Amino acid sequence: MDRKTRQYKRLVASRVRIAISGCLIGAKVRYNGEHCLKKPLAALSSEHIELIPLCPEVEAGLSVPREPIRLVRLETGKTGVFGSNSKHDYTTVLEKYSETKVASLSQMDLDAAIMKSKSPSCGMERVKVYLENGHTDVPAQGVFTSRLMKANPLLAVEEEGRLNDLGLRESFFTRAFATRRLKDAFTGDWTRRDVMEFHRQEKFLLLAHDEACYRELGRLVGHICDFTADDFKTQYMNLFQLALTHKPTVSKHYNVLQHLYGFLKSSLAPNAKLLFREMLVEFKELFLPLSVVMSTLKVLTKQAECGYVDSQTYLNPFPRVATFKA
């Protein structure tokens, strides 16, 4: 049986672990004693996703309710955290908490994080920064999220508002679930065969993100016997996650779609082949969305009974639970 018609056992990630600002899922921890519940985010908690809530300000010892805090850039050039009304300096307590919490999260096997936008503790970007005279300065990251991202540069991190963007949302969940599948592959007494099968099913997802990493990972797998188990695991996992930090583009997707079509075309009827080639051209010229092309490719894959293509995680990078509109 050749690899086109062979039936493959599709990779399925175990439960993904996502840290999330508690206020986004209904915890009344904001400065005014309220929450800012985003129902689609709260609904993510499922058999596929475990949400791990946190609130840096409350966990650092600040009360509920409390005075609002803000980032302030001092004359020394350093940025601190101060009470908006009292001017009390909360910098040390929040920085110490952030250091401790980030260290503890590293032991919790996180796959991703969703943080509250504009928050002086949780904001991922464009958090307001004030000068001592009250004027605004160049925006920054929140204290906690800044520490989290510096300690975990390969971790998928997003804000709730940015997840309204379809492309950013799909990229976020693709990274989260791919990271979990990666960890699953190297859990326990993994074998060379396990890794080769994992890589085979992930290869076109990797190619859609970064061709250089894709090729280097292929070389690593091809020379797996030249490494100790620990060295191979470290190099492969780091390079795999690095590949996912690169964003897919239309040209990258077009390249992958052409490759996958190549496995199907000999089994397709002439009109089906013509239809898909025309769709590829329209996609490349930005007249057709990727979702339409992907849906058609999935149908053609079933028609062609091509197990090799059907098993590619590129076609189904995450479960439907993560297809919400925020």
Provide a descriptive summary of the structure in words:
With 326 residues, the chain is of the alpha/beta class. It has two domains: 15-164, no CATH class; 166-325, no CATH class. It is 45% helix and 12% strand. The chain has twelve helices and eight strands. It has helices at residues 39-42, 56-59, 91-105, 143-151, 166-185, 192-209, 211-222, 229-244, 250-264, 270-284, 290-304, 307-310; strands at 16-21, 49-54, 69-73, 79-83, 112-115, 127-131, 136-140, 156-159. Strands 2-1-5-8 form a four-stranded parallel sheet, with helices on one face. A four-stranded mixed sheet has the order 4-3-6-7. Helix 3 (91-105) packs parallel to helix 4. The longest helix has 20 residues, at 166-185. The mean pLDDT is 95.
